[in-house]
Amino acid sequence: MSAARPGVVSALRWELRKLRAQHRARVVLLAALLAPVPIVVIIHGQSRPPKDTLFGRFAPDNGFALALLVLGFASQWVLPLLVAIVAGDVFASEDQHGTWKTVLTRSTSRGQIFVAKTLTAGGFAVVMLALLAASTIASSYLIVGHQPLTGLSGQVIGSHTALSLVAASWATMLPPTLGFAALAILLSVWSRNPAVGIAAPVVLGLVMGLVGALGGVEAIRPLLLTTSFEAWHGLLTQPRFTGPLVDGLLVCGGWSILSLGAAYVLLRRRDITGG
Predict the structure, then answer these.
(1) Model's pTM, two decimal places?
(2) Of residues 21, 25, 260, the one with CA closest to residue 128
(3) Residue 178 domain-assigned?
């Protein structure tokens, strides 16, 4: 075990160095940091709020409601897309450039490379989500205000409590975001095509969302990865319920384990003698 650690650490450092050099990754992080500001300004200036969405009717005049409105929109397809931009390319890029034989040197095994690339994609997802959440909450708080929030049960939530609940709601996005990262990794390894690795998770996420909205699918709806994006609703009710959060954590963990396990098996069995 001790002999394997330097290989993993060295591979991880190399993957992080490559990630920092990627223009696409830098653009995603910059967009996560800056894009919420104009979005908040635009919604705050609307005379007709989007009343058909959760917290939409309060969003123009309440910073906490606006941050939750952006959260609901981001979970539909933005988060799967942003995380897949790195996770869906991290393995397929080696196939695209024919660099597998160069990467798999004597000191670095396929398993070590897999761990390093997976940690890099997962770490990017965490940083991206943290930047997006912090920027959205901060800009909504500063630009729109921090008035008491009306919860989903009609209860009035004080500003201090509302801030912590909004932050917690954004934090609940981490398990499904990492689940989509694992799915993107699987598609990246399977397809060997960066375009498929990036686009397919977004398409699958949209399909899951549509299936979950249909009637008569109550048995499979809790098993869909996108259902976990809605678990934060229980934090804004009175009384609060956390059952969906626990269920979502288990479902996302299952998706992640199965996706990464299948990806690892595919990578182990791959013939890379051609490049």
Answers:
(1) 0.92
(2) 25
(3) yes
> Is the peptide bond preceding residue 239 cis, with omega within 30 degrees of 0?
yes
Instruction: Taking residues 195-214, report their average pLDDT.
Output: 93
Interacting residues of 78 by C-beta distance below 8 A, sequence separation 6+ = none
* Confidence tier at 4 by pLDDT (50, 70, 90): very low
- In degrees rounded to 5, what are phi and psi of residue 150? -90, 120
Residue 95 — very low, low, confident or very high, per pLDDT cuts 50/70/90? confident
CA distances in angstroms from 119 to 31, 182, 204, 205, 228, listed in the order given: 22, 10, 23, 22, 22
Q: CA–CA distance from 52 to each of 57, 59, 115, 174, 273 (Å)?
A: 8, 12, 43, 26, 55
Could you tell me the residue range of the domain that residue 44 belongs to? 4-269
> Is 162 contained in some domain?
yes
**142-171: pLDDT as tens digits:** 999 999 999 999 999 999 999 999 999 999
Residue 230 is assigned to a structural domain of this protein: yes
User: Is 85 within the bounds of a domain?
Assistant: yes
Q: Which amino acid is at 190?
A: W
Tokens of 271: 């013939």
pLDDT, average across residues 249-262: 97
Average pLDDT of the chain to the nearest whole number: 91
Q: Can you tell me the mean pLDDT for 242-258?
A: 95
Q: What CA–CA distance (Å, rounded) separates 177 from 268? A: 25
Number of domains comprising the chain: 1
Q: Are 244 and 176 in contact (CB under 8 A)?
A: no
CA atoms 145, 50, 232, 226: torsion sign: negative
